[in-house]
């Protein structure tokens, strides 16, 4: 069974997940938004995050990692 964004499994269950539930278990957006979400989770006592990269068309995994690292984990000030 696969769980990618376009897998049959995901397409079957995605419509059943309410937006408010999705908001509690995921984050998506630019670096500033994701840093804010991570900060709120840390303030709530969360000490670990798992990242499941869903690449935009044309984006490589390496590009995702570099962007996530530079904009979310260690942004330049």
Can you tag this structure with a few keywords?
4 helices, 0% strand, 77 residues, flat, mainly alpha
Give the topology:
Layout: H1 8-13, H2 19-25, H3 31-43, H4 61-73
Helix pairs in contact: 3-4
Report on the architecture of this protein.
51% of the residues lie in helices and 0% in strands. It has helices spanning 8-13, 19-25, 31-43, 61-73. The mean pLDDT is 86. The chain starts with 7 loop residues before the first helix and ends with a helix. The chain is mostly helical. It is built from four helices and no strands. The protein has one domain (8-73).
Q: Number of helix segments?
A: 4
* Shape category: flat
Helix content: 40-55%
Report, as a whole number of angstroms, the end-to-end distance. 42 Å
Strand-residue proportion: under 5%
Arithmetic mean of pLDDT = 86
Gyration radius (Cα, Å) is 14 Å
* Domain module tally: 1
The helix-and-strand class reads mainly alpha
What's the order of the H and E elements? HHHH
- What's the total number of strands? 0
**Largest beta-sheet characterization:** none
**Quaternary form:** single chain
Low-confidence stretches: none
């Amino acid at each position: 069974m696969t769980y990618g964004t376009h897998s049959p499994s995901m397409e079957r269950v995605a419509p059943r997940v309410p937006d408010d539930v999705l908001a509690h278990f995921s984050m998506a957006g630019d670096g500033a938004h994701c840093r804010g979400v991570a900060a709120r989770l840390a303030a709530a006592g969360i000490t670990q995050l798992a990242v499941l990269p869903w690449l935009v068309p044309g984006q490589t995994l390496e590009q995702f990692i570099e962007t996530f690292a530079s904009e979310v984990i260690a942004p330049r000030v």
